[in-house]
């Protein structure tokens, strides 16, 4: 071990486990790539104000969890705690919304940083795949995104992901509800910090997980009873489209989420095998965010799914992904001359699309065959001096142990045939 360890709340992705993370990213992004979403990549850091304005001054993410720094030039930057604000910033900066082709549909994948108290499933560095559909107020778009996320989980073989759904209203109906909720909350027995939250962002109090608070929230007024007609019918359309697509959901009138920018449709995917950190993904509509960061009115919807927790969910359900073998053929040269020959053979195999590896460092037969078995390869190519003299190499099936000589100038064809 070196003197250094990964910082608290972080961990390294190391083979062979790292393969599952790649597969999860691939599985989440595949449905998006088939549905008109283009890939976007933004910097790992942004101006602090983008998040304080976009995510919300009073949210835990902004007040407690951002990694901020001041550059030598005096810029105040933050490592990105989430993706939506950056993606919208990038879309506005590139004027994608002006190309006359709304909605702008984008997907992304990357690392995010939050200074949280680390625990199982909650890290300070984690990975998300996300999608945003910018510039259209259409319930079919909300439904599309939810269906694509549900399909991604299903394609991975997850069965126990539940979808929670709510509407947070809009600028028409939310202010009235907010006032009613505040009246209710002010009458409760709450600590100083929570009372402050009641004044700044009362909806977030509904999300309080503490038992003492939860008990008092039993009779709290709910947004769904205060939705205006437009929000109500929008939400009904989303629900109908989800039902038509065969995506099951549970109405959760308390679902609010930790970011301020959400309006109308809000949803979360949870997995019951994960303990306290049960949210595997979430998102919603954010019709006001563009204006909050200085852009034009662009009603939008999006989600972010957590890669780390999706991998944990797979483990919790005992799902093993059907991953392609990292190495199909492992070559074992015995001697200099054999190495030159097999180096050429491995290069040709790789160019022909076969995953192949070679024993390096002049190892003996025993050690090299151990590596061959450990690599998970189905076949080994072994060549020694006598084989070279005869113009052959030995092709060994590592499962059955069967071995036969194949011509040295016909290795690729023989391997292909053996792999079927
Ligand atoms: P959020 O942006 O908070 O809605 O998060 C979206 C998803 O990212 C969550 O459902 C989690 O799967 C994942 N996520 C958020 N924060 C963390 C974290 N600290 N550690 C691991 N995953 C996280």
Mean pLDDT: 95
Beta-strand content bin? 15-25%
Distance between the termini: 42 Å
The gross shape turns out to be elongated
Give structural notes.
- The chain is elongated, with a radius of gyration of 27 Å.
- It has an 8-stranded mixed beta sheet with strand order 1-5-6-11-10-9-7-8, sandwiched between helices. A 5-stranded mixed beta sheet has the order 13-12-14-15-16, sandwiched between helices.
- By secondary structure, the chain is an alpha+beta fold.
- It folds into 2 domains: 18-173 and 227-317, BirA Bifunctional Protein, domain 2, CATH 3.30.930.10; 329-419, Rossmann fold (3-Layer(aba) Sandwich).
- The two termini are 42 Å apart.
- The longest helix has 17 residues, at 139-155.
- The protein has helices at 18-33, 48-54, 60-63, 84-93, 139-155, 174-186, 192-200, 202-205, 211-216, 229-244, 289-292, 307-317, 336-351, 365-374, 385-390, 411-419, and strands at residues 38-39, 45-47, 68-70, 76-79, 104-113, 125-134, 161-167, 250-251, 263-271, 279-285, 300-306, 329-333, 356-358, 379-383, 392-397, 403-407.
- It contains 16 helices and 16 strands.
- Bound molecules: adenosine monophosphate (AMP).
- Residues 82, 114, 116, 122-123, 126, 128, 258, 279-282, 304, 306, 308-309 line the site of adenosine monophosphate (AMP).
- It is found in: Cytoplasm.
- Pfam families: HGTP_anticodon (PF03129), tRNA-synt_His (PF13393).
- This is Histidine--tRNA ligase.
- GO terms for molecular function: histidine-tRNA ligase activity.
- Keywords: Aminoacyl-tRNA synthetase, ATP-binding, Cytoplasm, Ligase, Nucleotide-binding, Protein biosynthesis.
């Amino acid at each position: 071990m070196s003197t250094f360890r990964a910082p608290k709340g972080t961990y390294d992705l190391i083979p062979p486990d790292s393969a599952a993370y790649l597969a999860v990213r691939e599985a989440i992004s595949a449905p998006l790539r088939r549905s008109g979403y283009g890939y976007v990549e933004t910097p790992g850091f942004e101006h602090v104000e983008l998040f304080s304005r976009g995510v919300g001054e009073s949210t835990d993410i902004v007040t407690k969890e951002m990694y901020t720094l001041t550059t030598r030039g005096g810029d105040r930057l933050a490592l990105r705690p989430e993706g939506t604000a950056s993606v919208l910033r990038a879309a506005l900066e590139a004027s994608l919304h002006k190309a006359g082709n709304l909605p702008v549909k984008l997907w992304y994948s990357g690392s995010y940083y939050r200074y949280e108290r680390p625990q199982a499933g909650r890290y300070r560095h984690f990975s998300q795949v996300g999608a945003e559909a910018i510039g259209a107020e259409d319930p079919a778009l909300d439904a599309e995104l939810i269906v694509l996320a549900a399909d991604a989980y299903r394609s991975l073989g997850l069965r126990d992901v539940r979808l929670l759904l709510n509407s947070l209203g809009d600028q028409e109906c939310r202010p009235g509800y907010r006032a009613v909720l505040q009246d209710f909350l002010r009458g409760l027995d709450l600590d100083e910090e929570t009372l402050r939250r009641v004044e700044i962002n009362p909806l977030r109090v509904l999300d309080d997980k503490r038992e003492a608070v939860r008990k008092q929230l039993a009779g709290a007024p709910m947004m769904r009873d205060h939705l205006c007609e437009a929000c109500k019918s929008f939400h009904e359309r989303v629900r109908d489209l989800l039902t038509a697509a065969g995506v099951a959901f549970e109405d959760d009138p308390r679902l609010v989420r930790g970011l301020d920018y959400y309006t109308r449709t809000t949803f979360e995917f949870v997995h019951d095998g994960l303990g306290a950190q049960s949210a595997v993904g979430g998102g919603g509509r954010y019709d006001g965010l563009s204006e909050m960061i200085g852009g034009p009115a662009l009603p939008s919807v999006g989600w972010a799914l957590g890669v780390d927790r999706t991998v944990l969910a797979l483990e919790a359900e005992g799902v093993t992904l059907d991953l392609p073998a990292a190495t199909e053929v492992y070559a074992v040269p015995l001697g200099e001359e054999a190495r030159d020959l097999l180096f050429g053979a491995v290069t040709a195999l790789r160019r022909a699309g076969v995953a192949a590896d070679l024993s390096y460092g002049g190892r003996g037969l025993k050690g090299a065959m151990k590596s061959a078995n450990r690599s998970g390869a189905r076949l080994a190519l072994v060549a020694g001096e006598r084989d070279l003299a005869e113009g052959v190499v030995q092709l060994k099936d590592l499962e059955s142990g069967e071995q036969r000589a194949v011509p040295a100038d016909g290795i690729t064809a023989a391997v292909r045939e053996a792999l079927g």
